[in-house]
Amino acid sequence: MRAVGAALLALIASSAAAETITAARYISPTGRYAHGILGDALEWGGLQVSLADGNARRFVLPRDHVFEDIAPRLVDVTGDGAPEVLVIETDMNRGAALAIYGSKGKITETPHIGRSNRWLAPLGAADLDSDGMVEIAYVDRPHLARVLRVWRFADGDLSEVAQMPGLTNHRIGEPYISGGLRDCGAGPEMVLADADWRRVVGVTLKDGKLAQRDIGPFAGADRFAAALACE
After folding, report:
1. In whole angstroms, how far apart are CA 84 and each of 14, 100, 156, 195, 201?
2. Would you call 201 exposed, middle or buried from its count of C-beta atoms within 10 A (0-12, 13-18, 19+)?
3. CB 3.0-4.6 Å disulfide test: which of 88, 171, 188, 199 passes with 69?
């Protein structure tokens, strides 16, 4: 019986390893959502994930949804050692949400912002406060509300941890999202701009609260690259 049990566990482990996501990309470009926040008229109608066993899976969105994004992000959100996929998924009537996909499809998502032509810009995901769980950060409406929001993934779902107004990481028409996460030796720190694009700032999460500090003047994309490199 022990041999049978060990064989079964090995089979389960092998099957799980085969389901590991190794890459992801958007597919099916579409012009069905005329927002163009990233500087062009095309968004994406589907997501393709590549698996460790050589297979690929495609997830096709309904016609009233698009991936309004630059590229999928591979991050181990669940803490099992294998990555999930973070995406910006937009409901054309209710605006953007940040969604998490696994090898079998969508796991969960944040609430949609609430109306058409409202977007969010991700900063990244990490254990931001050393509590053993992954937090995901994005800027809610980086051109309008300019609110940094942090969500924690636990028990298969997302819950909001903290938010801070007056921050941004994207300007209308730019085909990239600025800033991101860094660790210069004191733990994870979010790097983004103030609401007026005059200063680069760092934000940390501790005990459920966000704290901001000035990094230096904003002087173009090179300043973000230097900050993320701890220079």
Report:
1. 18, 7, 12, 31, 28
2. buried
3. 88
- Going residue by residue through the chain (231 aa), what tens digit of pLDDT does each one get? 556 554 444 444 455 688 999 999 999 999 999 999 999 999 999 999 999 999 999 999 999 999 999 999 999 999 999 999 999 999 999 999 999 999 999 999 999 999 999 999 999 999 999 999 999 999 999 999 999 999 999 999 999 999 999 999 999 999 999 999 999 999 999 999 999 999 999 999 999 999 999 999 998 889 999 999 999
Note whether 226 and 213 are within 8 A (CB).
no
Are the C-beta atoms of residues 127 and 135 closer than 8 Å to each other?
Answer: yes
Distance CA 212, CA 88 (A): 25
* Region for residue 152 given its phi and psi (left: phi exceeds 0; alpha: psi -120 to 50; beta: otherwise): beta
Q: pTM for this one?
A: 0.91
Residue 163 has a CB neighbour count (10 Å cut-off) of 15
Question: Length of the chain in residues, anyone?
Answer: 231
Q: What is the DSSP letter of 18?
A: H
DSSP tag of 115: S
Both tokens assigned to 94: 């209710």
Query: Would residue 166 be called left, alpha or beta, if left means φ above 0 and alpha means ψ between -120 and 50 degrees?
Result: left
Q: Round to whole Å and give the CA distance between 190 and 171.
A: 18
Closest by Cα among 107, 98, 112 to 64: 112
3-state secondary structure of 15: helix
